[in-house]
Structures are given as structure tokens and as C-alpha cells.
Design brief:
The protein is an alpha+beta fold and 422 residues long. It has 2 domains: 2-18 and 233-419, UDP-n-acetylglucosamine1-carboxyvinyl-transferase, Chain (Alpha-beta prism); 22-230, UDP-n-acetylglucosamine1-carboxyvinyl-transferase, Chain, CATH 3.65.10.10. It contains 14 helices and 23 strands. Bound molecules: uridine-diphosphate-N-acetylglucosamine (UD1) and phosphoenolpyruvate.
């Protein structure tokens, strides 16, 4: 176990380069199992979720080699081990994305129900409904999702009751190898879905409409390889640094960003009185003077992302006035409030609503991350706080932030990591 020790109170100043998107990279790693030839992926973040996913796909039989600290070569096998070990699968949420590709390519899959952060109930009913709609026999057996297909999946019309990111991805991937056309309605529109669709098309799939409510996939018998595919920048890492700059009343230039993907975050920061300027793949965030409280409701993209809610809560805890946050996606994402309260914040949680009364400042103390974004929020709180903060459970933060300490050190932060027993 490690802890992060941060001496706060300084505005963030300087430039930071954003890494590749965790959620796009994880889905694309799963999709690589469907490739008939070598795939070279670039802009892959070297974070613990990616490392675990690589271990899983290697176990399944893929040959995976790092070509640099952010690029990988993958050669998927013809014969696989279709039941990766539960201990690995349970380490991350995105392992649920193995089901569609493995089933579609190899006809059988047995994948433990995924693990990941405890941010709420995370069923897979929509994934199962979609795959079953294409002719797969899917059942839940002692904590495993087990799927069979007798020949090839069959294209179908599938309506999602909720635009689930994972269900959209799983069904879209499987549909690439189905016979005939699949029409997926009420799908998720997140940028990671578009990135995955672009990658699949690079392998020879025929996916249209990603990024809209309806995705149409014309199935092909097999997919090829891809000489080079660069994953999009991480919009949640971008948002985290933007909010950290605002929270510390700093001045930060973010490089390797797609401004459109962070528009919901830019909009809320501007509403709070933070200056956000866009220029191609760069964003400049400048905060100072009096800021305004804002209300936030998390929604599927292009709404405000649930993965940025905790970081905004940390920021708003020192903005004078009352901010209201409504969490519509994951019911346990307010666990962070207790830790912020330890640091002096004034937050009341009532079901899916949190009321944040801005205080003059936070103070450093010992706190623990309860999930990945709660960890990011505590880092932001620590950057603002007077004195020293020790953040425990850093393994959550390591799931999703590439070189966090190095990046913050370059921005003038005093931060170090120490091994600890708890
Ligand atoms: C690896 C990855 O990409 N993770 C992201 C993905 O998670 P994930 O793909 O798990 O999130 P979903 O979009 O599927 O979940 C959203 C909501 O749908 C519900 N649901 C989902 C599937 C299902 O079969 N049945 C069902 O009821 C969930 O309980 C949740 O309330 O999207 C979330 C929502 O933007 C993000 O917070 C996660 O960072
Ligand atoms: C919830 C998240 O990820 P996952 O779905 O991988 O748990 C996240 O990235 O904030």
C-alpha cells in the first residue's frame, strides 16, 4: 500500500500534457482480440487498469509488447483461453468488455462478473439483452457470465433502455462479426464510443453513426489488423487538471486535449467565473478573484460526466455560496463528501443530492480514497488545503492517472509517495 503526501496552498502554474484515455484504451484493448492481424496502438496510458487488462488478454493468448512507454503491439491468437482468471477480471470494471469480442470471435466466453470501484450497482442486463438479441445463449453461473453461440451471431435491432457505455461497446464490438446488419438504438454517445468505432473500422469493420443515438453495424466475416491507431486524449484527466487549476486559483495550459470532449466541464467552470480559452488541442485555464457557486447534474454525454463529479465537489467546497450537485448515474459517488468534511468542507448529502456550502479554506489531514475519482478529488482538495494532507488507498488513483506525481511536481506541487502498511 502507498500513500501520497501533498503540501498544499500553492496555485498550479505551468503546462501539462494529457495522456491517452483510460476508458477508450481499455475498450480498444478488448476489441484487439477480434483483430486477424497485428495491431499497433499509440497514446496508451501506462496506468494500472491498462496493465491488468494487458495481463488478461495475454492470459487469453494474445502476444502483447510495449514498443515505447505509450505504444503497444498486439497479436491476437487464433485459439484462446476463453475463461480468464477471476482474480484478474475482478480487478477492474472494463473486463466486462471482454464478453462481446471473445464470444463473437471464438463462439464461447466465460468471464467473471467485473470488479472495479464501489460506486454503485453496476449490472450487465443490457449487455446480455443485446448479445442474446443477436442469438447468443447467455447465462449467469456462480458469478460468471457464460456465453455460447452455435454458429455466427445474427444482426438484430436492439434498443437499450438506458444509454449504457459498456453495453453499447460490447454489443457494437460483437455486431462487427455478426451476420447481417445490427441497428442499436438509444446508445451511449461518449467520445470513447466514437474512438472504439473508429478503431473497429480501421480493422475493416463497418460501423456507422457512433456519437449519435443510433449505431448501424454491417457485420463482416473477419477483421484484419491496423498498423497504427492513436487513442484519444483522456477527457477526465483533462477535466481533473482543469478543475485543479481552478481550485488552486492557478494558471494552467493543457496540451493534447480535444476541447469538444471537455465542453461540459468548460461550461461549468466558466459559469463559476473561471477563464477557459481553447486553441486547437490546447486549453488555458486561469482562475482568480471571486468565483461563483454552480449547480451540477451528472448525465450521459454530452451531459456533465459522473467521472468529474467528485473533483467538482472538492473545488466547489471552497467557492463562497451554495452549490447543488445531483448524481444521476452512480448512487455511491458521494462517499467523497465524508473525506472532504474531514478537511473542513461543509457538505450535506441527501440521497442523490449534495449541498455544498463554500468555506473559506480546507486544511490538510489524513484521508482515504474510496474510489478512483474520489481519490482525484482528494488530490485537488490537498492542493488547496493549508498544510499537509496524506491520502491513503492510492491504488484507486493509480487505476486512472498516468504519471500523476511527475505531472504535479512539474506544476510546482510538493508531492511524494511513501509506502505504508494500511
Ligand atoms: C470502463 C468505462 O468505460 N467506464 C465508464 C463507463 O462505465 P459503465 O460502462 O460501467 O457505465 P454504464 O454507462 O454502463 O452505466 C451507467 C448506468 O447504467 C446502469 N446499467 C449499465 C449497464 C447495464 O447493463 N444495466 C444498467 O442498469 C448502471 O448501473 C449505471 O447506473 O461509463 C460510466 C458512465 O459514464 C463511467 O462512469 C465509467 O468511467
Ligand atoms: C468509474 C470509472 O471507471 P470504471 O468504470 O473503470 O470503474 C471512472 O473512470 O471514473
Amino acid at each position: 500500500m502507498d500513500k501520497l503526501i501533498i503540501n498544499g496552498g500553492q496555485p498550479l502554474q505551468g503546462k501539462v500534457r494529457i495522456s491517452g484515455a483510460k476508458n477508450a484504451a481499455l475498450a480498444i484493448l478488448c476489441a484487439s482480440l477480434m483483430a486477424g492481424d497485428e495491431v499497433v496502438l499509440e497514446n496508451i496510458p501506462d496506468i494500472s487498469d491498462v496493465r491488468v487488462m494487458i495481463d488478461i488478454i495475454k492470459y487469453i493468448g494474445a502476444e502483447v509488447n510495449w514498443l515505447s512507454n505509450s505504444s503497444l503491439s498486439i497479436i491476437a491468437p487464433d485459439v484462446i483461453v476463453a475463461d480468464p482468471p477471476c482474480a484478474l477480471v475482478k480487478k477492474l470494471r472494463a473486463s466486462n468488455l471482454l464478453l462481446g469480442p471473445v464470444l463473437a470471435r471464438f463462439g464461447f466466453a466465460k468471464v467473471s462478473l467485473p470488479g472495479g470501484c464501489n460506486i454503485g450497482v453496476r449490472p450487465m442486463d443490457l449487455h446480455f439483452k443485446g448479445l442474446a438479441g443477436m442469438g447468443a445463449q447467455i447465462r449467469l453461473e456462480s458469478g460468471f457470465a457464460v456465453g455460447h453461440i452455435s454458429d455466427r451471431l445474427k444482426g438484430a435491432r436492439i434498443y437499450l433502455d438506458f444509454p449504457s457505455v459498456g453495453a453499447t461497446e460490447n454489443i457494437m464490438m460483437a455486431a462487427c462479426l455478426a451476420e447481417g446488419q445490427t441497428v442499436l438504438e438509444n446508445v451511449a454517445k461518449e467520445p470513447e464510443i466514437v474512438d472504439l468505432a473508429n478503431f473497429l473500422n480501421c480493422l475493416g469493420a463497418k460501423v456507422r453513426g457512433a456519437g449519435t443515438d443510433v449505431i448501424k453495424v454491417e457485420g463482416v466475416p473477419k477483421l484484419g489488423g491496423c498498423v497504427r491507431y492513436a487513442v484519444i486524449p483522456d477527457r477526465i484527466e483533462s477535466g481533473t487538471f482543469m478543475v485543479a487549476a481552478a481550485a488552486t486559483r492557478g494558471r494552467l495550459v493543457l496540451e493534447n486535449v480535444i476541447p469538444l470532449h471537455v465542453e461540459p466541464i468548460c461550461a461549468k467552470l466558466r459559469e463559476a467565473g473561471v477563464q477557459v480559452d481553447e486553441d486547437d488541442d490546447k486549453l488555458t485555464v486561469v482562475a482568480g478573484g471571486k468565483l461563483n457557486p454552480v449547480d451540477i447534474k451528472t448525465m450521459p454525454y454530452p451531459g456533465f460526466p459522473t467521472d468529474m463529479q467528485s473533483q467538482m465537489m472538492a473545488f466547489l467546497s471552497t467557492v463562497e455560496g451554495t452549490s447543488i450537485i445531483i448524481e444521476n448515474i452512480f448512487e455511491n459517488r458521494f462517499q467523497i463528501a465524508d473525506e472532504l468534511i474531514r478537511m473542513g468542507a461543509n457538505i450535506k448529502v441527501e440521497g442523490r443530492m449534495a449541498v455544498v456550502e463554500g468555506v473559506a479554506g480546507l486544511y490538510g489531514t489524513k484521508v482515504k480514497a474510496t474510489d478512483l475519482r474520489a481519490g482525484a478529488a482528494l488530490v485537488i482538495a490537498a492542493l488547496m488545503a493549508k498544510g499537509q494532507t496524506e491520502i491513503y488507498n492510492t491504488h484507486f488513483i493509480d487505476r486512472g492517472y498516468h504519471m500523476l506525481e511527475e505531472k504535479l511536481t512539474n506544476l510546482g506541487v510538493e508531492i511524494k509517495r511513501e509506502h505504508c502498511l494500511t
